[in-house]
Amino acid sequence: MRLFINLLLVTFSLRPGAAENLISHDENKEYLRYIKQLDTGQRKLILLNGKMYTDTAWTSSFKPDSIFVYYYNVRSKYPESSETICEKSKNYLRITGRHFSGSGYITFRFFIDSSGLMQKRVQVLQTDEQYKVYRFNEGLVWDLYDYLKTLQNWKPAKAPKGYPPFYIGLMTFKIHEGNIVNIIP
Amino acid sequence: MTRYVDSGAAKLPYYYNNPLWDKYLDSVLAICPQLASAYQLKAVPALKNGDYAKAYELDEQAAKLDSQQFVPYLGFLKCIFTKDYNGAIKDFDIANRIIPGGAEMDHDFYFYLGICYLELGNFREAGRNFEIDISSQRSGKSAGEVHFNSLLYMGLTQIGEDRSDSAINYLKECLHIYKELPEANYYLALIYKNKKEYDSTRKYLEIAKQSFLDGYTMNEDNLYYVNYPRQITLYEIDEQLDLLGR
What we know:
By secondary structure, chain A is of the alpha+beta class. Chain A folds into two domains: 2-39, no CATH class; 46-184, no CATH class. Chain A has helices spanning 2-12, 18-22, 25-39, 82-96, 138-149; strands spanning 46-48, 51-55, 104-112, 118-128, 167-176, 179-184. Chain A has a six-stranded antiparallel beta sheet, covered by helices on one side. Residues 3-24 and 26-40 of chain A have low confidence and may be disordered. Helix content of chain B is 68%, strand content 2%. Chain B has helices at 2-6, 20-31, 36-48, 52-65, 67-81, 85-98, 109-119, 123-138, 148-160, 164-177, 182-194, 198-213, 234-244, and strands spanning 103-104, 107-108. Chain B has a two-stranded antiparallel ribbon with strand order 1-2. In chain B, strand 1 and strand 2 form a beta hairpin. Chains A and B meet through helix 4, strand 3 and strand 5 of A and helix 4 and helix 13 of B.
């Protein structure tokens, strides 16, 4: 943040040569790395009202926090066993070639609509193995999110008239030393 | 509890997923901060909705305040909900010291210990615990009838130990009690597949599939929230049928 403010001052400064006085070589290098991240579309988790999201986009007229129906209210766990999903997600991560550390749980909460499609707004919850709030390497979170997006067989939501045509789905990846070891539910 | 939960929170639309659920339980805790069951009830939506940090903070508080009631419950949550088998083993070992041979959610502590060891790949310990579970049921109050899931998991443990004949016996005993159980039919099919007895493989896979389509399940109360270990879906059955060549 301090770097950003300094760079703003540099940008709008009326004195030529002010840059050399306000930012160091290391700060400039850090800024250029930040800009490069944005240019290459490197994703960052969004913190909003104390909750973390991969995306907060929401297009329905129903407020997302007003929906109470969960997958278990409509018997809509993903139609593959936890063991199957675990194997497939492990294979997916293996293909990326990336390695991570950390142990605990990464949970994604998302909305499934009446076409069985996952909506963009996805909340992320992370804990360590002792169930304390924790932050894994974001690369792992994004890789798991990318795997989650490959799941296409969610049961379409059905809602009585007047109710939001969504249900909240859930998928938790249990991680041990950077590897997926189980899936919930 | 009567005022705020039975007459209040329990009547909310969408029950514990109503945001007011928390407020009702907070009202109870403001008056009775040592009431263990209030912490457990407050944790329910957090647990079922994936907020494990919040859920376990509350459930662990419940267990501290009333170990007899909530240590086994904590073990059950770790075993079935968060698949934390090492954590569940610790809790059930403590539970066995507090209430020797006790039960949680319709099953002996040894049932859950068996599942934990099965999932950790320690088939010997799994078998030992399921043996205690099954023996106590045979000699217990319910006229000696053993729960079909105890027999199912014992059968799976025998598969893990490469004792296919013993596994077949346990799975067939399971099916004798509940012939439609998809999982028992499915895993029996896999044993026959390994033995290259493909007619029996197909027979049990077809039964598993029809049973699944007819709505038969493992009949555990929490199936709507989580998959029990080794629980299958139609996907796995169809996959095996495809491999067999329809």
